[in-house]
Amino acid sequence: MVTSLLERCVEPQENHGLPRPGLHRRSLLRTAVVGVSAAAFGGSLWRGAAHASPAQPGPGPYGALGAADAQGLQLPRGFTGRVIARSGQRVANSSYTWHSAPDGGACFVDGRGWIYVSNSEIDPAGGAGAVRFDSSGTVTGAYRILSDTRLNCAGGATPWQTWLSCEEISRGYVYETDPFGVRAAVRRDAMGRFKHEAAAADPVRRTVYLTEDESNGCLYRFTPTTWGDLSSGRLQVLTAGSAASGSFTWTDIPDPDGSPTATRSQVAGAKRFNGGEGCHYADDTVWFTTKGDNRVWQLNLLSATYELAYDDSLIGGGGAPLTGVDNVTGSASGDLYVAEDGGSMDICVITPGGVVAPFLRLQGQSGSEITGPAFSPDGSRLYFSSQRGTSGSASGGITYEVTGPFRT
């Protein structure tokens, strides 16, 4: 499995408008090993484990949260946090002023350390920026990678080391960007025009899953004509019944441009999801969240079935630990980390055993939301943002790093 996955990620490809980073083959293989490992093994504990019921509250793998630190950050014992960027202020060792309303994010390997990419959910002049770290975790620079786009909310990383930045507007676009800040971003029209939210690449089936932030939105997949080139391909929508679990199929979208008929209204039987948000792929499974009903969905690709991994309405006594579900990522252990838009300003962990518990909490930021959770390539650091910080405004965003003994 690992060998075939690596071959798929590093096979020679043409540039197709956004050249790949200038790394020699050995570097690409090293990158693929780090970048694909979570996808190859991160969900292994979930495979085939159709839960009798969605996740329920219980003791988290890291224990109870401690008292808030000077930054208002509550963490379990053994974990520490720091601020790496603030909206409107220059990032350390750079001339880049960190963007307002930081949103979806991801980490990428480079030859000296890693890069954290972050969207800017403002309109107009959204886009995305990046922070570069050396191998010790020191911030060494920051820069803009996408400009003059609108409400860039979430997105997703590709196996060929690009960032897909998604516009959360009616008939919005997906932009493929270069985390290394060298090459110009490219608009990917073939991926459809709708209210994009998140994207998750599947290197096994060579496709990209896309969520839609509408109350009657859909889940899509885009299969490029050539893996590694998103300039052309096939956009499809998930079709299924109305139940919370069952089987599904994929059906072609006749007009990905979405005009005059919206993409979500073109296919009879398209399954509706209430406010699609984060999306994460690992080990033949796609997890995605819907904020309108506070659910985490699990798409089992081997069996072509779907089910609920979490539903706050199924937790009795009003004790749901996770509300306002939003961005989601995963760790190499198979744990899911789900950020809250509001709620208690938590990032909650959902374990492969079906336990949901708070992992961290921000105090004094009730007018904000948590966005952009992403692990460093070695899995030892978690990055995320408070989109509006303590001020409650887009100009008050704060981006954090948490370091500690994460499960591997």
TrEMBL record:
Pfam families: PD40, PhoX. InterPro entries: PhoX, TAT_signal, WD40, WD40/YVTN_repeat-like_dom_sf. Residues 386-408 are annotated as: Disordered. This is WD40 domain protein beta Propeller.
